[in-house]
Amino acid sequence: xxxxxxxxxxxxxxxxxxxxxxxxxxxxxxxxxxxxxxxxxxxxxxxxxxxxxxxxxxxxxxxxxxxxxxxxxxxxxxxxxxxxxxxxxxxxxxxxxxxxxxxxxxxxxxxxxxxxxxxxxxxxxxxxxxxxxxxxxxxxxxxxxxxxxxxxxxxxxxxxxxxxxxxxxxxxx
Length: 173
Known about the structure:
Distance between the termini: 39 Å
Helix content: over 70%
Shape: flat
Number of domains: 1
Number of helices: 5
Largest sheet: none
Structural class: mainly alpha
């Protein structure tokens, strides 16, 4: 087998992979759109039930639990919107959904009715998610982003002989 033949077959394979990837992305986008419609319908149904329970004079804890459930549905809807726009999963939104869902479960059962071991695990889980959200680089501070931009700008300035001519960036040292 010659080198030219290998190159031609690898180019054909890359072309097939690109078209297969494009097809799979379209299928995945259709599935995400279906999930968005289902979440939207579930949110509307839950809002209808919340309105009915408010008119019937339901207890405070049930109303709070329903509101928190609607917030979880809305955050999941936002997660799907971010996925469709950017083709990535927002970890910070997933962490926020985990925190709200865990708090909802505790509020639904009542803090005094939950076993102390389960409450301890729930608290540790919420604290862990809070640490991930704050310190794991999931949601960078604006100051950190500005500092990074300043470092990149300074590096480019040094690499371009003291001027900010972005067209003359040197590739190697």
